[in-house]
Structure formats: structure tokens, C-alpha cells
């Protein structure tokens, strides 16, 4: 099954192989995610896609242990926006709120999907 992204979010999904993009409002300068046609801060329509560092911190998370365990989380990017994502490549018992994380891309049904793994502290 192949997922076809909506028109407004297509640049986010088409560019995820190696870089993480979010939208920026040219009028007020705010970064935001989820993609949309107007700025949620000032209702401006002059928007641009900008590349993120791919680094952030865990805002909150939950580990599900039924079947194959997985962690779902909200990650606050260094650039400001908060994304719902999965935390991968880690020991779920060692996760903590405010842990630094970095983006990795996993192939899900032919789409490079951004997820996050713990980053080295320091």
C-alpha cells in the first residue's frame, strides 16, 4: 500500500529522505508543523519550507508493550515546532522527558518517515 500525501503536506513527505522540513511564515517569522496553507500565528499566506537541524527534545512519550513494543512521542524541535513521532533504536526503559533526540528516517510503505532516536548527550 502506498500513501499519497495531501497537496499541502507533499513537500514534507517528498523531501524526507535525509532532511526534515517544516514551514516558516515569511510575514511573522514563526516556524510551524503540521503543514497548512496559512500561518497559525498570524494567518499570513506567504510561507516557505525550511530545513531543520533534525534535533530536538522529548516533550512527552508513551511506551506500548502489547505485541511488539513501541514508543510514541511528541518531540519539540530545536526550531520550535512540536511533532508527533516514534522514538526508535533505543531501550524504552531508559527514555525520559527532555532527553535530546535526533531524526532518523525509516521506510514505511515506500515513504521515508521521520522518527527520532536518542542523541548523544554533551
Would you kindly provide a written description of the structure presented here, covering whatever features stand out?
InterPro entries: ChsH2_C (IPR002878), ChsH2_Znr (IPR022002), NA-bd_OB-fold (IPR012340), Thioester_dehydratase-like (IPR052513). Residues 49-106 form the ChsH2 C-terminal OB-fold domain. The chain has 122 residues and is mainly beta. It has a single domain (7-118), classed as OB fold (Dihydrolipoamide Acetyltransferase, E2P) (Beta Barrel). Helix content is 4%, strand content 43%. It contains one helix and eight strands; from the N terminus they run H-E-E-E-E-E-E-E-E. It has one helix at 10-14, and strands spanning 21-25, 31-32, 47-51, 55-64, 70-77, 82-87, 100-108, 111-118. The strands form two sheets. Strands 6-5-4-7-8 form a five-stranded antiparallel beta sheet, with no helix packed on it. Strands 2-1-3 form a three-stranded antiparallel beta sheet, with no helix packed on it. The longest helix has 5 residues, at 10-14. The protein is elongated, with a radius of gyration of 15 Å. The model has no long low-confidence stretch (mean pLDDT 88).
CATH second-level architecture = Beta Barrel
| Percentage beta strand | 35-45%
**Could you say how many structural domains there are in total?**
1
Task: Name the strands of the widest sheet in spatial order.
Answer: 6-5-4-7-8
Low-confidence stretches: none
Structural class: mainly beta
Radius of gyration equals 15 Å
Largest sheet: 5 strands, antiparallel
Domain ChsH2 C-terminal OB-fold: 49-106
Pfam families: OB_ChsH2_C, zf-ChsH2
Domain ChsH2 rubredoxin-like zinc ribbon: 17-47
Protein name: OB-fold domain-containing protein
Amino acid at each position: 500500500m502506498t500513501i499519497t500525501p495531501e497537496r499541502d503536506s507533499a513537500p514534507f513527505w517528498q523531501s524526507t529522505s535525509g532532511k526534515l522540513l517544516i514551514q516558516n511564515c515569511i510575514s511573522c517569522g514563526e516556524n510551524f508543523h503540521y503543514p497548512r496553507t496559512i500561518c497559525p500565528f498570524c494567518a499570513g499566506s506567504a510561507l516557505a519550507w525550511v530545513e531543520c537541524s533534525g534535533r530536538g527534545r522529548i516533550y512527552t512519550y508513551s511506551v506500548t508493550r502489547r505485541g511488539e513494543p513501541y514508543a510514541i512521542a511528541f518531540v519539540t524541535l530545536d526550531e520550535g515546532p512540536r511533532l508527533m513521532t516514534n522514538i526508535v533504536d533505543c531501550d524504552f526503559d531508559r527514555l525520559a522527558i527532555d532527553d535530546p533526540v535526533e531524526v532518523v528516517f525509516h521506510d514505511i510503505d515506500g515513504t521515508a518517515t521521520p522518527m527520532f532516536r536518542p542523541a548523544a548527550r554533551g
